[in-house]
From TrEMBL:
It comes from the Bacteria. GO terms for biological process: ATP synthesis coupled electron transport. Pfam families: Proton_antipo_M (PF00361). This is Formate hydrogenlyase subunit 3/Multisubunit Na+/H+ antiporter, MnhD subunit. Coiled coil: none annotated. Signal peptide: none annotated. It is a multi-pass membrane protein. The keyword Transmembrane helix applies.
Length: 609
């Protein structure tokens, strides 16, 4: 890979720059211009990623054979006296993830600048935005386990402020569930990380294969810890609740790039390509397939576009989980799978970010502009469904090629199950377009029965988000161009493309899944989609929350009766369940609590160093 002179020295600055803006945002005198710079805080990361990726593609004579897993280790910058020794570097995989993060955070930041121009709480939003961006960039450029974990934790907890920004009852509930799942994920991840590094002398990434006494437990804990962020089936409960209440630009980065941190964590921390893990690999394959199919079935019952897109993200992340499971099951397939998963992450992040911003654009558009916007919204939807020669087709075909080397019966089963998943995605995208094609009054009425409009907290009408949305749409569509040119034989295949030419069978299956989905969706127009019984967002959460609520109220009643029996004071200080509830309500007073936590984490890190 071609590098800038001492490029590694610039990498920590990518993550520290948003934190510097955050510090200036807290100072009243610099708050105005810090808020003006905040939407563009990811531009340096985008420029550096473009140089790295395009430099590798255009300047390296071996670009066509670039292997994301076996490429030489990149130059690194070390800070040995901070924490356990921080290392920064940018390998081929990190370059692509940095490109996705830089592009999506920049265009979503542009949209957020427009969207929240008249928001009375915009400075609080920019504070959490910058903290989440810093953590996201930090984990991408980190080449040590502790640095990656620190960035991952910062991104995870800062995202809470984005989710609860509307301050509605639904936002608080979604934030509470997200925070519970985030803490659970961090506990699992930290436990697995400590067990994992205990059996090795180095914490450099990717971690070496661990043959210690607790290798099995550590690997499972790491898989589950990152699985919370990646939306693995069963750990996905926060996703369909968070997206509809978060501002649309925040939803774009949450689904487009933040959940990809779970995938990157798997790629960095799990012992992929070293030795087979049959049980965990088979479990990940099964969970991935179930997520790809079950999330589609639940998503089809939804009546809000953003909830439907959340379930679509769970389904698509299921395919990435499937790829990780295949690598655990069959280590020799990992180099090809690393390439396929990286391309799939880039495709999905751009397409899903475009679709989320398109929801806000269509909610504002009327007349002819609305019809044109709906037609443009169909383009990333078709790519997500895998229409032949789109970015989704190249991503899915590359994944299918990488999975072809698995032991029987997986290749035969996946050859039919993957087209079924594509068929389901086509139905889901048709449902999305149908929902967005409804008259604005009907759409507002449907939203009013579930979650209040997200822009209800704004004091003035929201300006148009059309320009950043179109920019992201063009970036999503451009991802398919190199594959098309290489397929026609006009250019040499680029590093992020499958090396084998798609077969006529692959093209036919992709086209068949698309046509069947369109045909079924068209037939469903005669039987209104809204007649489908809706499964509440969070699905499994209803089964969990009801018993917990009954237990909590029973505990509260028991506490009061015990106080009355003993003749003790019945003030809230003596009724600890109510006291905990009051303390939780006090902790919700953000951004003070969030900023204090961030300051404490940073101070602790530097004091330890």
């Amino acid at each position: 890979m071609t590098h800038l002179p001492n490029m590694e020295t610039l990498l920590p600055l990518l993550a520290l720059w948003p934190l510097l803006l955050l510090a200036l945002l807290l100072w009243r005198r610099s708050r105005a211009w810090a808020a003006a710079l905040a939407p563009w805080a990811a531009v340096p990361a985008l420029l550096l990623a473009l140089y790295a990726v395009l430099g590798a593609a255009l300047m390296s004579p071996a670009a066509a054979s670039l292997n994301l897993q076996t490429a030489a280790a990149p130059p690194t910058l070390e800070w040995p006296h901070l924490l356990l020794g921080l290392r920064f570097g940018l390998d081929a995989t990190g370059s692509v993830f940095l490109l996705l993060a830089g592009l999506l955070w920049t265009l979503a930041g542009w949209a957020a600048h427009i969207y929240h121009r008249h928001d009375a709480r915009r400075h609080a939003l920019w504070g959490f935005w910058l903290a989440a961006l810093s953590g996201n960039l930090w984990l991408i450029v980190a080449q040590d386990a502790i640095g990656f974990y620190a960035g991952f934790a910062l991104m995870s907890f800062a995202a809470y402020g984005l989710i609860v920004h509307a301050r509605s009852a639904e936002a608080w509930r979604a934030g509470r569930i997200y925070l519970i799942m985030a803490v659970l994920g961090e506990a699992l991840l930290l436990s697995g990380l400590l067990l994992r590094v205990a059996g090795t002398d180095s914490i450099a990434l990717p971690l070496a294969a661990n043959g210690g006494a607790h290798a099995n437990l550590a690997t499972v804990l790491i898989f589950l810890g990152f699985g919370v962020k990646a939306g693995v089936l069963g750990l996905h409960l926060w996703l369909p609740l968070a997206h509809p209440v978060a501002p649309t630009p925040a939803s774009a980065v949450l689904s487009g790039v933040m959940i990809k941190a779970g995938l990157l964590g798997w790629m960095r921390f799990l012992p992929l390509g070293a030795e087979p893990w049959p049980l965990l690999g088979a479990a990940a394959l099964g969970l991935g397939l179930l997520a790809a199919l079950v999330a589609v079935a639940i998503g089809l019952t939804q009546r809000q576009p953003k909830v439907l897109l959340a379930y679509s993200s769970i389904s698509q992340m299921g395919l990435l989980t499937l790829g990780i499971g295949a690598a655990l099951l069959h280590p020799s397939a990992w180099p090809a799978l690393a390439l396929a998963l990286t391309l799939y992450a880039l495709h999905h992040g751009l397409a899903k970010g475009t679709l989320f911003l398109g929801v806000a654009v269509l909610a504002q558009a009327t007349g002819t502009a609305r019809r044109w916007a709906l037609a443009a919204q169909a383009l990333p939807a078709l790519a997500l469904a895998g229409v032949p020669l789109s970015s989704g087709f190249w991503a899915k075909d590359g994944l299918k090629q990488a999975l072809s080397g698995l032991p029987a019966p997986w290749p035969e089963a996946l050859a039919w199950l993957l087209p079924v998943a594509a068929f389901g995605t086509t139905l889901l995208m048709a449902r999305l377009l149908w929902l967005q094609a409804q008259p604005a009054a009907a759409q507002d009425q449907a939203q009013a029965t579930a979650i209040p409009p997200e822009h209800a907290t704004l004091e003035h009408p929201t300006p148009s988000l059309r320009t950043p949305w179109l920019a992201l749409l063009l970036a999503s569509l451009a991802l398919a161009v190199p594959g098309l040119l290489a397929w026609l034989g006009w250019v040499t295949p680029l590093p992020l493309l499958p090396t084998a030419t798609p077969t006529l069978t692959s093209l036919a299956l992709a086209l068949l899944a698309l046509l069947l989905g369109v045909a079924l969706a068209t037939a469903a127009l005669h039987h209104p989609w809204r007649a489908l019984p809706q499964i509440s967002p969070g699905d499994l959460l209803d089964l969990i929350e009801a018993p917990l609520q009954r237990f909590w109220f029973a505990l509260l009643a028991l506490s009061v009766r015990l106080d009355q029996y003993r003749g003790a004071s019945t003030s809230p200080a003596h009724r600890w369940p109510r006291t905990l509830w009051l303390e939780e309500r006090q902790l919700r007073r953000l951004p003070v609590a969030g900023i204090a936590l961030l300051a404490l984490l940073l101070l602790s890190a530097f004091l330890i160093g």
